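Two folds, back to back.
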Amino acid sequence: METVIENATEQPTETAKPKSKRAAKATAKDTPKPAAKPTKKAAKAKPAVEAKPSAGKSATIQTLIGRKNGATLSEIMAATGWQAHSVRGFIATFNKKNGGAVASSKNAQGERVYKIS
């Protein structure tokens, strides 16, 4: 009995499977990634003129401390929505930029009052 092998010259069409998990991960990394989808932020149009959010609050504080009796810390906090440490930081920076123009004192109730001197 003779055995005849047909098509012995054909190459296998299946790709070889990786022998280990590490090899499988390496081949997965080699495949190209699809193009990134555009984000929602990129789709939104920006306004033509951007307003500075702190400019309004800065002007509000300057108006309050520019009054005859100045403004208490709690009044400034209520007007701006800022916390106490943020108001004190703004006052310190304002003083530094304007040569110490803001005076700080306590009123009869013991509240801190800021006033442009």
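---
second:
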Amino acid sequence: MNTKVVPVEMLPCPFCGVTPDIETWHGGKPTKHMVSCVNDECSCAPQCAGQTRTEAIARWNIRTASPAPQERRVVQRRSKTDNELAELYARRDLDANLEAALAAGKEKAE
């Protein structure tokens, strides 16, 4: 029987963007394969196994659409900065209101 192996593209890690690795996995039958993120600095280090190489890759590639890791970081930074700015403005406004109230109180006392 002549079978042709068709290469299947693996998507990058959804958390860090690094190309994953696939290896034979002996967590059961020796025919299992595992796809895993090989980046030591990945925040999640996901893994996925399948009975065949193709099944493992297919399971790895199933995911919801998400922004690229760099885009996520920019959005998170922007959100954090926006929150920090909102806090600063709120403090500034509170300080201005407090100063105005203190000035009004001094005027009444005089």
